[in-house]
Structures are given as C-alpha cells and as structure tokens.
Amino acid sequence: MLLALLLPVLGAVVFLGVATGPASLGIGEVGRALWPGGGEKTALDRTIILQVRLPRVVLAVLVGGALSTAGAVLQGLFRNPLADPYLLGVSSGAALGATVAIVAGFTWQFSGFGAVPLAALAGALFSLWLVYRLARVGGKLPVFTLLLAGIAVGSFLTALVSWLVFWGQEKIHQAVFWLMGGFSARDWSDVALCLPYVAVGLTVCLAWARELNLMLTGEEAAAQLGVNVERAKLVLVVAAALLTAASVAVGGLIGFVGLVVPHIMRIVVGPDHRVLLPASALGGAVFLAAADVVARTVLAPAEVPLGIVTALTGGPFFMYLLRRKGGSAVHP
Amino acid sequence: MKEFLAVDRVSFAYNGVPVLRGIGFTAARGEFLAVAGPNGAGKTTLLRLLGGTLTPLAGEIKLAGVSLRRLNARERARRIGVVGQETYLDFPFSVGEVVLMGRYPYLSRFGHEGPEDLAAARRAMEAARVAHLRDRLVTTLSGGERQRVLLARALAQEPQVLLLDEPVAHLDINHQTAIMDLLRGLTRERGITVVAAMHDLNLTALYADRVLLLAGGTVAASGIPEEVLTPETVQRVYRSEVLTVRHPRRGCPQIVLIPGGNETPCGPGH
User: N or C terminus of chain A with fewer C-beta within 10 Å?
Assistant: First the structure.
C-alpha cells in the first residue's frame, strides 16, 4: 500500500531534482531535452540533465535507499531502534580513506573512478574486516561485542581523521566539506562505483528479511524455529556494512537518514521486515533526493553540505517523534 | 515406540565448567515428562540440548532413532518445538504473524506462506486457544495469553516433541492449570511428547507421566511421580524439609512445605 504510494512520490522528487538548479527547467523543457533531436538549446539542456543533474539525483536515490535499509537491518539485528549504519565503524574507515586521499592530494584515477571514493571504499572495507575480527568470539558474532568493536574501531579511526584534517592545513576546507556529506561535483563514475554494492546489498537484505523478523523475538528463539542464526547475522551485517561503505564512499557522512527513515517507516508499516525494508529503501531515497534539492537551492548559488540539511530537518522531526505519545514511538 | 526420545550418557560444559554429567533417560510418544530440580541443576541446559541449539560434549540424543547431530536446523525445527524463557515479544507484530513464524522451517527462501501454512497456523491457534486474539498486537497481551501464543507458534511447527522451559512461571493459578491441561491434552490427543522443566512439584505430580529429578548436573531420581516425589528424595535433592499428603481427589502426592523457626499453627493470634 505505502510502497505503491512512495513510488510516484519518488518519481516526482527525481523530476524535481532534475528540473531544479541554476537553470530552472519546466516539465516541457525536460521532456524535450530527453527526446531525440532538437536545437542547440535542447542539446545544452540535455547535457545539464544527463551529465550534471541526473547522476546527482540518482546518487542521492541510491545512497538514501542504501543508508535507510542498512539502518533498518541494524535496528532489527540489535533489537534497538536507535541503531544506525554508522555504529559499525565502517563509515569512519571510509572517512579515513577519503581524508587521506584529500590531504595527500591524490588525483589519480583507476578505470574511471576517482581517488577519493576509491580510497573511502578501501578504508570502509578495511574497517569492516577489523571490526569483524575483533567482534568474533569462538566462531560466533555476538551483537553486543559487534557493537563494542564497531564503536571502538569507529572512535579510533575518527580520531585519526581529525588528526589528519588538523594537520592537512590548506586542505582543511575540502576535507571538512567532504566529511559533512553531499553530492556536489559527482558524476556517473560515482554512480557506477556504488551501484553494484547497493544492488547486491539491497537484494541480500530483502532475501534475509524473514530471518530478521524471527530474530526480533530473540536469537535463541529464532534458532529453535530453524534459523541458522550465526550465518544470518553474518550475511546481514556484511550486507548492511557494504551498503554503508558504498554510500559513504560516494556521499560522505550523511547523518540521520539511516536512523530516522527506518524509524518512521516502522511506525507506519509495522515491524515486518519484508515490508519495512523496501519501505525504508524507498523512503530513504525520497528523503535524500528531496534533501539534496534543498541543499543546492536554499542558499544558491552556494551549496549547503547535505549532511547539515538532513540533520537540521531530521533532528527536530526525531525530537517530535520522541515526545509524541510520551516517547512510545521510539520504543519498539 | 517406547524410546521415541532417547538420551544416552549426555554431558555438557560451559567454558570448561561441567553443567550436565552422564544424563540418560527415554521418553515415549505422547508422554508427559517433567524435568525438576533445584535452581542451577541443569534443567534449561538439558532443554537446549534436546532442542538442538546446544550440542552435547559427549553422549547422544536420538529422536525416532536419528541422532540430533544429523539433522540441520530446519529439519530439527520440523520435529521439535520449543517454548523457551528468552523469547521477546516487544515488537508490535500481530498474534497471527508471530504464530505464522512457526512455519519458517517449511518455507523456501523466496517462498510465501501457502494455504497449508495458514491452515497449520490456524489449527495451532485453535489448539492453544488464541484464535480470538489473531489480530491483537503481541505487545498488548497478558502473561497467560503471551505464553499461549508462544505455544501456538511452536505448534505451528507441527512438532513431534514439545520442549517447554517453566511454562507456567509467573502465571496465576487459573492460567497455570489452563496451560497444563492444554499440554496434557496435546500428549493424549496428538501423541506429542512433552518435556517440560518444572519448578512447581505439585503441578508436576498432577500432570506428569514421569519425573526426571536433576541435582548438580546428574539424574538424582527418575520415574513416576509416586516414586520420585517422596519426602526423602525431595529433602535430599532440594535440602528443604517437606511432607507429602495425598491429593483429595486424584490421590497423587502433593508436597507440603514446612517453614523454619516455629511450630505455631497457621492463622491469626500468634
């Protein structure tokens, strides 16, 4: 029901994202630009749409969907509605990779991918490996040690990031801007970098949604119902981490999407992850694409970092949810 | 079959600390076996071993002649249903959704619940008397309703063996007898073998076909309640002075506790 409602909304937001910018385009102009043929003006519009705005909108849709899904999965795994994708420490690894690339002034490319997103992705995968090794106890992955390992690795790597930023004097602005998150000056190569991770991550999470439901009633209870709990946890944690890694690699640290969107969706559609995960993916895509439109229009021609927009809009909304019905909206 | 569930010299330890040593017993089809014993005797661990979520360090557990080690999680869940102590119902699923989770071992990864799954869930809800609660959220249930919903979920697995860890703990006397009546009905009418860890020795004497009394990780006594629940055995195992009387209607033994300190009669004025 809600899914059917969210799809047209997503379509509308994507159109809005494509139409909005320094050169504002109407429905007719967008349509004409995408239609083959036309004059010089149409060709310019087409370039703006296809090379500048569309990759950015697509990226916002992918990252919004990925972060929200990862957040929903981790909230379910930790049985805690306050979990978010950045708990796993993977984002700090990505931030470290990106900061190293920025401060060192890397400009190389690898098969069309930029140095910063590649370094971020490598940092994220390294921190995932580190967290996994730390959290593993006797062939099992207890969610409690996973949480602690994520926080420990995350804080350590974040400290390194701060040190690098502090030390990287003239690159400070660029690094801080990246860390705050956003999609300015992104192109199709960034889409190509994160798309495989997002596609695989989303598919795996959806395929394991039933196990996630059963584990909400307790890991032991799920095992007694026939779930291979350790395998399910491993699969879901890695999938959520890859979704986060790819998102941070191309978008920086965009907060609140992975916390607030799954939360709101749970209130609307209930706790069944077979509905909650697709709803979170769509809701996150809509939210982040819309927030990106705000980020690049509200102070145009200057751009507000997207992470600030999501926190400024998501924060108060979350506070409202917290107080509504005496906080019952926050508790599962 | 006399030895439908057969436990042979089973031992288990947590991190090198032995919890169960050389446990052996059998249970027949449709038998109600109560596992009693003081706190820390190993009752819950024994149930986890029987449920297959723990594997014995030594010894063997067989169900219908097949070792539990040779069954994977899903095959096990189609034969053994568990109502444990550590099940959380704090996310707002409906009762119907929770009971349908019991069909998990019958579903393929991308398969949806079919008519036979819905029918099995409905039968389970009727058997556990929760059919009228189907659309209620589990977060709104009372303790007795909650326990029956978890029983319905285990029944939806269509198990041959039902394991319960203190199924009537925290319930009032009305719900205690309701749950126990239900469990005995399942053994008699469906031939389900019930193994329940029990704290209440009087309920045990009223309902169990046989009692396995554990103490310090070994079997202290086993047999029909009449033989096991004697003042001497109970005193030896629980280190608590007791008397037994006869149930006025059923004739089975009932344990009477003796408070320490004085011999003053109960009632006002002392």
Answer: N
